[in-house]
Design brief:
This is Alpha-1,3-glucosyltransferase. It is a multi-pass membrane protein. There is one protein chain. This protein has a domain at about 165-265. The chain is about 65% helix and about 0% strand. It has 22 helices and no strands. It has helices at about 1-20, 35-50, 75-90, 105-135, 140-150, 155-165, 170-180, 185-195, 205-220, 225-245, 255-265, 290-295, 300, 305-330, 335-350, 360-370, 375-385, 390-395, 400-415, 430-435, 445-470, 480-505.
Length: about 525
Amino acid sequence: MEKWSLMTITVLLALTVRWAVSLGSYSGAGKPPMYGDYEAQRHWQEITYNLPIRQWYFNTSDNNLLYWGLDYPPLTAYHSFVCAYIAKLINPDWVALHTSRGYESQPHKLFMRTTVFVADLLVYIPAVILYCFSLKETSAKKKASTCALCILLYPGLILIDHGHFQYPLSLGLALWAVLCLSHGWDLLGAVAFCLALNYKQMELYHSLPFFCYLLGKCFKKGLKGKGLVLLVKLAGTVLVSFAACWLPFGTDVEQIMQVLRRLFPIDRGLFEACMFSSPTHCPDKVANIWCSLSVLIKIKNVISPRTQLKLSFAVTFLSLLPACIKLTVQPSLRGFKFALVSCALSFFLFSFQVHEKSILLVSVPVCLIINEIPFMATWFLLVSTFSLLPLLLRDGLLLPYAVTAPAFLAACLASFSVLEKTSAEDLQLKAFSLSLKGYVSWFKSFPRIVRSLFLLSLALMGALSVLSAALPPPQRLPDLFPVAVAVVSCLHFLLFLLYFNLVLLWDPKNRGQKKIS
């Protein structure tokens, strides 16, 4: 009973923080003609409610795809339709075709914010709570609630979902998939992940760990017996799940092709969200390798779009290959969670058409291992929030950022004593350090070095945050601070990618083979 009381307090605190953030501004508020992501979500409700399904993804006189055209999978469209149906009952003006474009009012803002709250309460938060209760490492009464508190107070997700404006459904469904696999419910996990992927195509970041883990499990059971049966069941489950999501579009090949073209706009170039035509002019700075390199090398001017696509694919594939091989050969729940982090980070750093918000696809899996490596997880989650700073400043979310980030750090310090968890064993690097014994003399002072780097990193991020918010940039370098934030974050992420791969690859004990119960 006591553990549920603690968890109830945790959830209430998390909801209070979300409510406080939601009182502020949102993406594109009062900024015509395109406004922002808030208007995109409202516009999709307008389109899905007023137009037949066959027109949702096509450019027509009633559906101008240049104005926030649908570019997410069918499940997002169905969700928009449900929200629009409720909105129509409250105020038809909110979703009126054409005339509702750019609609802004306090009642409508309350409605839109409420839809995000409902999605959080029904999908994301329950998955976090059940995950924390199921961890063997957090079986003590207070441990589950403290772990849940740190995950639910992660500022990046709160600021994007309840500030900028976004729904947490795809990440919540992915969490349910991880939870199902943790309990050995492989078919239910496959269904949940298929739903996540059919809500947002960016869940492809997590697809290879799911595929490799389940395939490795089939191999381990034997492909001439139980393993083959499981493989057939999984294949059937995936096919049925996709067929159900795409059923309204399945009668017309052209419909399917048009949806796919909207989901994967490869003709836009390597990093349309970060077009460094010059090193000082970029609307959205993404902390990945291509945008960071483009400060020095104008990649889009040197390499053709098709070559960019091939280069991106090759580098992404090579960077995630070791983790995928390891997980397929030695499938374990622990390895699966670390592979989710490693593969998602590889996609973010090296893949095609990355948005700065995509870092959340890495951050949520990192939240799942915060109880195992609290120091590095806390550090990563702070850097991931910092990488969103230019977007948050543009949305008027400086105050929520300035409050939630230190509050999250304080919660992690209180819950896990992260500054004391810096030894090679605490960082899950004991096996790797043993392999270097006799070659690296400074490994004894490793904890002190890591703590110093962490504090230096915090100071750098704090200084850049203050400079970005308080000082106007030089006239000749108008995007100096956003570019600096992107490059600093990218350097952090490259080091984190190396670290997570070392932990995953140097794990001979395969400890994650034990089921979470």
